[in-house]
Amino acid sequence: MAPHPETLPGMLEWNRDCACLSLDTRRLRHALEVELGEPGLYELVRERNPHLFSALPVFVDATWLQRMREVAAALHATSRLPAWQQCVLRYAPPAARHEVAQPGLFLGLDFHLEAGALHLIEVNTNPGGALLSSALARAQQACCEAMRELVPGAESAAAFEDEVLRMFLQEWHAAGRGGLPRLIAIVDEHPMQQYLYAEFRLYIRLLERAGLHARIADPRELRCEGGRLWLHDEVVDMVYNRLTDFALEGESQRALRQAWEQDLAVLTPHPRAHALLADKRNLALLCDAPQLRAMGLDESAARLLQQHVPRTLVVGPDNAQALWEQRRDWFFKPWGGFGARAAYRGAKLTRAVWEHIRGGGFVAQRLQPPGLRHLGAQQAPLKFDLRAYAYEGRVQWFSARLYQGQTTNFRTPGGGFAPVLSVPHGPLEG
Fold first, then answer.
1. What's the rounded mean pLDDT across residues 140-146?
2. Which of 33, 86, 176, 393 has its CA 20 to 30 A from that of 318?
């Protein structure tokens, strides 16, 4: 049983002492198949994604959640600076130089929060898990009296889903389009084989409940003809882009790249949004307050970003030797990568891998450990990171991911997406 909140100074004790399992699997089935209207989805998730949802919540002080909101607002303000755009577009791929009015659907800001320190470790422009996390919120139960005030209700999940829908329409109208899109295509490579395919189906249902027509598609199914983008025999007016080829450079992206460059359809998120916000090389600028101030960012926002973005360096000939010698203090990841692929903790680097890293294409980020969620004295704790979904600088939803190992992997028993429960305690320390 969890201790009473009044006896606790903050989230560390909740995550250490509370062993409550808040997930009600019957409610989860009902949420996925009845409330969200997708029969068979619960069994699909259970069979294909056995570690998608954790039964444990993650507790976070409300003050830290507010700080995450402030970081999101500062990041948005930075991305709008002409000097910032000019700087980052110098090293961006050609597709990012096509200018459009719509900002791109929500970002995923990934944080580590441990020992009173909050660190923004990366930004994603096509983050997964938003609708899955809202479904998870619908399936929470209070296992003890102390948790009763903390567990979110279905109302908060429904309100977030309404925000997601409004965000799609805002993107559509920001692009200068009137009325409603005739067809929204949710596009990814081999979508039915994607780990988060279940979420694509939730997006279809969300859009259809609002009277919008939506389909899931592979980019190879698209073609440009007669000044329009087509999916088989239907005109596509809008594309929800879940591809990880952020610059649309692959052969399978040819039609989508043409549609983007010629404004044949509203693409969101898009290459320019990724270049301005999610290219990992940008982290080396975001942690540098003097440079941000020189670009025109106000003092408080520049200081906030420097405080919460770990020191990041682009690996190159000038710093490679020093980074190798200090590798235990750094985490290395490809600046064009995603989902922790080809990411390495410095302490585990081999010489062969290092030769690959020093050849280019990587950033080094000062190692900042994730938080820990304890399961009891007889079990090893799980690590967690926090994700804030934010649109135009405003956080819409929080989620957590529990895991063991080097990075989030959705292969850990007891791990997966977890609800974030706000506890009203704990002054900020860093």
1. 80
2. 86
Cα separation, 126 vs 122, whole angstroms: 12
Q: Can you give the C-alpha Rg of the chain in angstroms?
A: 22
Q: What is the mean pLDDT of residues 213-227?
A: 98
Write down the pTM of the prediction. Answer: 0.93
- Final residue belonging to a domain, choices 366, 383, 410: 366
Amino acid at 416: G
Cα separation of the two ends of the chain? 30
Distance, CA of 245 to chain centre:
16
Separation between Cα atoms, residue 305 and residue 118, nearest integer Å: 11
**pLDDT the model gives residue 7:** 37
pLDDT band of 377, cuts 50, 70, 90: low
Q: What is the DSSP letter of 183?
A: -
CATH of the domain at 315: 3.30.1490.20
Instruction: Give the range of the structural domain holding residue 322, as residue numbers without chain letter.
Output: 311-366
Long-range contacts of residues 41-49, Cβ cutoff 8 Å, at least 24 apart: 41/198, 41/201, 41/202, 44/197, 44/198, 45/198, 48/195, 48/197, 48/198, 49/195, 49/198, 49/410, 49/416
CA torsion sign for 295, 297, 299, 302 is negative
Determine how many CB atoms are found less than 10 A away from the CB of residue 134: 27
Q: How far is CA 390 from CA 37, 103, 124, 226, 254, in A?
A: 26, 12, 10, 36, 29
Are 305 and 78 in contact, with CB atoms under 8 Å apart? yes
Q: What is the DSSP string of 230-265?
A: EETTEEE-EEEE--S-TT--SGGGHHHHHHHHTTSS
Q: Which two tokens stand for residue 254?
A: 């040819």
* pLDDT for res 6: 38
What is the model's pLDDT at position 425?
A: 64
Residue 34 has pLDDT above 80, yes or no: yes
Q: Are 217 and 186 in contact (CB under 8 A)?
A: yes
| Residue 79 token pair | 């991305």
Chain position carrying tokens 């410095």: 346
User: If you write DSSP's letter for every residue of 184-199 in order, what string do you get?
Assistant: EEEE-SSGGGSTTHHH
Rounded to an integer, what is the distance from CA 315 to the centroid of its chain?
24
Spell out the SS3 assignment of 128-164.
Answer: CCHHHHHHHHHCECCCCHHHCCCCCCHHHHHHHHHHH
Whether residues 276 and 384 fall in one domain: yes
Q: What DSSP character marks residue 327? A: G
Tell me how far apart the alpha carbons of residues 349 and 154 are, in angstroms, rounded to a whole number.
Answer: 45
